[in-house]
Amino acid sequence: MTDVLILGGGISGLASAYFLSRRGIASTIVEKQPRLGGLIRTDAVQGCALEAGPDSYIAAKPAVTELAEQIPGLSEEVIGANEDNRRIFLVKNGGLVPMPKGMAMMVPADMRAALASPLFGASTKQRFLRERHQKARERTTDVSIAEFVRDHFDDAVLDMVAEPLLTGVYGGDARNLSAASVFPQFLEYERRYGSLIRAVRSERKQQTGSLFLSFRHGMQTLTDAIHRATSPAATVVSGEATAMEHDSRGWRVRVNNGWGTYRRVIIALPAPSAARILERADVELTSELAQIPYSSAITVVVVYRKASIDHPLDGFGFLVPRPERRQLAACTWINTKFPNRIAAGYIALRGFIVGQDAEGLMLGGDEQILSVVKREFARLMGIDAEPTFHTLHRWPASMPQYVVGHNARRNRIQKLVAAHPGLALVGNAYEGVGIPDCLRLARIAAESIVLP
Description:
The chain folds into 3 domains: about 1-40 and about 55-80 and about 215-295 and about 400-450, FAD/NAD(P)-binding domain (3-Layer(bba) Sandwich), CATH 3.50.50; about 100-205, Orthogonal Bundle (protoporphyrinogen ix oxidase, domain 3); about 295-400, Polyamine Oxidase, Chain A, domain 2, CATH 3.90.660. Helix content is about 35%, strand content about 25%. It has helices at about 10-20, 65-70, 110-115, 120-130, 145-150, 155-170, 180, 185-195, 195-205, 220-230, 270-275, 285-290, 335, 355-360, 365-380, 405-420, 435-450; strands at about 1-5, 25-30, 40-45, 50, 55-60, 80, 90, 95-100, 105, 105-110, 210-215, 235-240, 240-245, 250-255, 260-265, 295-305, 315-320, 330-335, 345-355, 390-400, 425. It is globular, with a radius of gyration of 23 Å. The chain starts with a strand and ends with a helix.
């Protein structure tokens, strides 16, 4: 009998093993992929550090920075994005228009900049002025982000700002995503102030440091460091769990072709995978987990010779609103956002294809997908040069969708899990999709484990 079994070797599973190891508790990690880290992966190609998944984390959430301070040498690797050039462009009428400064998501904190911006028409600007007089309200039911944004602004703000900003995080539809789960801070603003504009202007704090943090040689630095710090307390087993059930001794789990018994099990897998494994143990819990929808993504990093690119790359990149979108949803200008990541003489652009567009291309060949991205770079940036090399990663069903009613489902899941001593669920399907959220839940799960 093993003390703790962790299903999944992504950031949540690795972090769970790490926090357990700090308490002197050994664990076994089961991972079916040939590498640990899940969506966090950095490809080192010709002197460039090219991210396959997330390229940074939000500095305001402290979990990653706190963990980095615990692992010797890791905090010295933390870097900020290039704040001197932090601005985002949005595609409008086929051209790139800068996001007005002072935007807090879809809310203009700098009214002068918003009213002067060509991104918004006259009716939208009039709506900004009227929104400042909205009265406080407290919602008793969950609503979609689309409905919430329309209550304060108009369809132009929803289509041109809110939806594109959410695309890279959720890859979903604002008509389905939950305002309470995705925008809890803005719902609190609405409850206290009524007007979101008045709220962000009142609550705005002077920013110090970078909004986004990462690691000098890429985000995989984090997962590699956690893995090293966890060894030898955590044993990694290559394989897949397919079923589990509870008996008087603990949890019986089928891994590969054999059953083992464990005192505690932490499931750090996507919700549908967790549902399949738990089918024998709890049909109701399985049903709740299976109903959490997921979206897909494809990331393509295209690297050019610097001499062949005329574009100024004077920002972090651009977002493509749905009315302007063909297949590309966003692009990061890596040289500007993280200059140290790209070798001298190269320009690297990272394209994102998400949702139904990604699912439609998922089975296509690499050249087909690369052609889509190159065509969009030509259309939106005027780039007709041939790339020197590229990386391409498919991430099917990788982004959980916090749809309307998600908080209620999460609460039901928590109650069902609490009825099973020795079981914990961690990951980005429950209380936050970011890396800091995954670390926070992993720490809580590890601290809740009490062994006889």
